[in-house]
Amino acid sequence: MITIRHVGILRVPRLIPLRSSLQFRFKSDDSKKNNKDNKDLASKSDSNNDVSEFNIKPATSKSAPAPIDATNSGLDRLIKKNNKPYIPKLQHQRVAYEYPGLPNEDDFTKSQKPKLTTRWSRYIPKILTVIAAGWGVYAIKVWMYAPEKGAESKELLDPAEFHKFIVTHKEQIDNDHYLIELVPKFDHWKYSFHTNYEEKSLWNGDRIWSVDVKQPDIMVVRSYTPLPLLFMKSEYTRTGEKKPLLKVVENDSGDYDRNGVMCLYVKRYNDGEVSKYITNKEVGEELELRGPRIEYKFPYHPLKKFHTRPMFRDLPSKIESENLLDHIKTINDLPDFDNINFFAAGTGIAPILQVLLSRNPYRGFVNIHYSAQKPGELKPLERFMFFLEKLDRVKIHYHYDSDKKSILSKKDISPPTEPNYISPMRIEDETPNSESDNLKLRLDILQGQEKQDQKSNIITERAPRYENAIQQALITSNQPKKGASLSIVCGPEGYIDYVAGPKDLAQNEQGEVKGLLGNKKWDSKNVFKL
Ligand SMILES: Cc1cc2nc3c(=O)[nH]c(=O)nc-3n(C[C@H](O)[C@H](O)[C@H](O)COP(=O)(O)OP(=O)(O)OC[C@H]3O[C@@H](n4cnc5c(N)ncnc54)[C@H](O)[C@@H]3O)c2cc1C
Questions:
Q1: Which of 30, 45, 328, 497 has the fewest CB atoms lying closer than 10 Å?
Q2: What is the residue range of 312's domain?
Q3: Is the pTM of this model over 0.70?
């Protein structure tokens, strides 16, 4: 039924154009075969013209199929035409091997088997792979690469263990003087740094400290004095266009004291084991440091409780003034800080620079006697010394071997003055009292201390106000300075002998005070040999 309607209805409008196109093609083709086909097609199309004989009844409705009058339609003739018998193929070539579906079964009607997996189960192989890889890495790290010494230390420096530092800059000042910038290789120490900054920060001008540097090839160590300095690097310094500027680590800030950076000021001895080893190091190489080793602690002074000197900064105009100092002294009835002498030769200047450039610098006035072979050994450090003088914190006396008249001699040394304040411990040490007297003294000191604590809260007078430390120094530098009551000597053995008499190295003791200081009545109570 469907076939009949297709033939009868759809082919009718196509017949005429088909014939004309075919005729056109056949005219251009002169082969016999095509003439024959042409005739066949022409006869076929003539028979198809018979469709026009079909009586098509008018439709009963628009959607109804076109009814055909079967009585006089010639359909019987059409059906009989080409009505070949069905001959099954003897051989069938299969192209697909799927098992044919059951009758009325398709993908949608197939019964769904219950899922045995959850939606997470596809992640399980990935998770297992990650765990296995992590375990593998951990195992390799633990068994093959044991952590380096100091890598997991909570301290930037440890007196009992060497920690690795990287050389990040090396500046040669002259033939045998270098500044070496170092940063810690590991940063585990940072985790606990801010929780106890006062304890953790290395830079505290209340003491002089050093580090041991190891020469691992011969297992020898030597002491060196770190300075709170760093080299400011930029793209210009990396390309070599400019030299990096030496700056002070402003160690009251929260950047882990500039990530633990420090500088060593080293004199190279060509036959010196460790100084040669250090100065041979190139940027990126490692050095091993152990410390800090406290070399000297400044004596106690009650004013320390009430007043801290603002730390040195690269821009001196940014250093705060000490406006309230005089006022605090008056209302607490406290003496001034003691002034000191510091005798340094060569790299022996490093300890006092460490103290003056650190947080909590020494609060008294410092006379620095600096001896060297010739000018120029300090070059990049001279800027800081100049500003320290401008701040009226120090006076530097230069003594050069190259200028015989300037060499340090007895004329440069004054006798000691009495300290403004003698600590109770020192009184106890120096006065041979009975035990009960000492007890009474301690009680008096404690009571006196309490009285001072009460007084400290009462501020009645107005103190002079200065904009910054430089402005204050303009006034104070004109005021006379009291003599020094403490002398510290630092330098090579020969220099120490000359200034203060030899150290008792065998006993690791200070030894009797002799030399220039001994001649001017200085003694073991007021001289310290570093
Ligand atoms: C607390 C402290 C802090 C120090 N800080 C610094 C510092 O910041 N910078 C610095 O460069 N040095 C500093 N030193 C000195 C340093 O520790 C070494 O002594 C010095 O670097 C030489 O060691 P070396 O292994 O190279 O020489 P060594 O192998 O010990 O000696 C080689 C030769 O040099 C001579 N020599 C050794 N040391 C001196 C010297 N100081 N003066 C003259 N001749 C010497 C020896 O007599 C010998 O002939 C400090 C020393 C101490 C105790």
A1: 30
A2: 298-530
A3: yes
